[in-house]
Write a structure and sequence with these properties.
By secondary structure, the chain is α+β, with helices and mostly antiparallel strands. It has 3 domains: about 30-115; about 125-215, YbbR-like domain (RNA Polymerase Alpha Subunit, Chain A, domain 2), CATH 2.170.120.40; about 220-305, Beta Complex (RNA Polymerase Alpha Subunit, Chain A, domain 2). It is built from 6 helices and 19 strands. A 7-stranded mixed beta sheet has the order 14-19-17-16-13-15-18. Strands 2, 5, 7, 9 and 10 form a 5-stranded mixed beta sheet that branches. Strands 4-1-3-6 form a 4-stranded mixed beta sheet. Strand 16 (about 265-270) and strand 17 form a beta hairpin. The chain is flat, with a radius of gyration of 35 Å.
C-alpha cells in the first residue's frame, strides 16, 4: 500500500513538472514581440509604358506577434505584385498607388503596426525605340606580332527600347570588352552588348557577332607571363619572380598551330637539393617541335632555399 502511495505521489510530481514546463513554453512562445519584415515589390507594366523614374523596390513592415511564428515569417521571402494595368485604368503618366498591408499573409495573432510606405509614387512614360550604333570595346591590346587581315561586325546598329529621356542622351551601345588573347585560334565571336540602364531592352533578340581573320606578321612570337616551375625536392622555396617571357621563332607547321604554343611552352628552375640560402638559378625552357628559342627574360632568378 505504501508503494502505491509513493508511486502516486511521484506521478503527481512528474505531472506537475510537465505542466509547468508546458505552461512555461506556451507563455514564452506566446509572448508578443515586434520585428521588421522586408517585402519586395514586383510591378506589371502596361505594354506600351515604362518607368520614367524607378519606383520603390521594397517596403518595410513593422509587425507584432507571438514569438513562435517570428522565425517562420522572417525566413520566408515575401513579394507583392502590383498590377499597374488594374490600378491605372485612366492611363495616367503620374499617379499614386495606395499600399494595402492586408496583402501580406501573416499567421494568426500577428498584426501590422506600421508600414514604411503608405503610398507608392508611380511615374511612367511611353516606350520609345531608337537605332543606336554598336561600339566594340576591348580589354587588352592585340598580341604582339598579330594583326587583323579581316574584321567584320555582323550588324553596325542595334534597336533599343526604353524611356525617351534616356535614349535621347545615348549615342551608342558598347559591347562587353573583348580580350584579344581569346580570339587566337578562332574566326568568330558573339558580342554581348551592355545596356547602361535596366529599363532599356532589345525588342529584337538579334545575335551580334564579329567574323575575323588573325594574321601573324612574323615567324617570331613573344610569349608573356609563362609560369616558372621549380624542380626540387625541397618544398621551402621562395622567389619574387614567378613568371617569365620567351621570344621564339616558329616554323611553318608551328605557325598553323600558334594558338597552342603558349600552353605548350614550359619554363623550369632546376634547383639542387644540396643548395640552401639565396641562390641564382638559370631558367631552362622546354619548347614543342618546330619552335626555336630566341630569348628568355629573365635568364636567371634569385631563389631563397630554406
Amino acid at each position: 500500500m505504501t508503494m502505491k502511495l509513493k508511486l502516486k505521489k511521484h506521478s503527481l510530481k512528474f505531472l506537475s513538472l510537465f505542466l509547468s514546463l508546458f505552461l512555461w513554453a506556451y507563455i514564452l512562445n506566446s509572448e508578443k514581440l515586434s520585428f521588421e519584415k522586408i517585402v519586395y515589390l514586383d510591378y506589371i507594366l502596361p505594354e506600351d509604358m515604362i518607368f520614367s523614374q524607378k519606383p520603390p523596390q521594397e517596403v518595410i513592415f513593422n509587425i507584432e506577434g507571438p514569438r513562435a511564428f517570428i522565425k517562420t515569417v522572417l525566413d520566408r521571402e515575401d513579394r507583392m505584385l502590383i498590377d499597374l494595368n488594374r490600378v491605372n485604368q485612366k492611363k495616367q503618366l503620374s499617379f499614386y498607388v495606395d499600399f494595402n498591408s492586408a496583402q501580406l499573409n501573416l499567421p494568426f495573432g500577428m498584426i501590422v503596426e506600421n508600414v514604411s510606405l503608405r503610398r507608392i509614387p508611380i511615374k511612367l512614360e511611353r516606350k520609345f525605340t531608337k537605332m543606336l550604333p554598336i561600339k566594340v570595346e576591348y580589354s587588352s591590346s592585340l598580341p604582339e606580332g598579330f594583326s587583323f587581315q579581316k574584321f567584320q561586325v555582323s550588324t553596325t546598329e542595334v534597336e533599343v527600347q526604353g524611356p525617351k529621356t534616356i535614349l535621347e542622351s545615348l549615342k551608342s551601345i558598347s559591347t562587353r570588352p573583348i580580350d584579344f588573347d581569346s580570339l587566337i585560334g578562332h574566326d568568330s565571336l558573339v558580342l554581348e552588348p551592355v545596356l547602361p540602364d535596366d529599363r532599356l531592352s532589345f525588342p529584337r533578340n538579334e545575335e551580334i557577332k564579329i567574323n575575323y581573320v588573325l594574321k601573324l606578321n612574323s615567324s617570331e612570337l613573344l610569349l608573356k607571363d609563362i609560369p616558372i616551375k621549380f624542380l626540387s625536392k625541397n618544398k621551402n622555396i621562395f622567389s619574387k619572380i614567378k613568371k617569365a617571357s620567351v621570344k621564339v621563332k616558329l616554323d611553318k607547321i608551328a605557325l598553323k598551330n600558334r594558338s597552342n604554343i603558349s600552353s605548350s611552352v614550359q619554363i623550369w628552375a632546376d634547383i639542387s637539393s644540396s643548395k640552401t640560402g639565396e641562390v641564382i638559378i638559370p631558367l631552362n625552357v622546354v619548347l614543342p617541335p618546330g619552335v626555336e628559342l630566341l630569348e628568355v627574360n629573365p635568364k636567371t632568378i634569385l631563389v631563397n632555399i630554406q
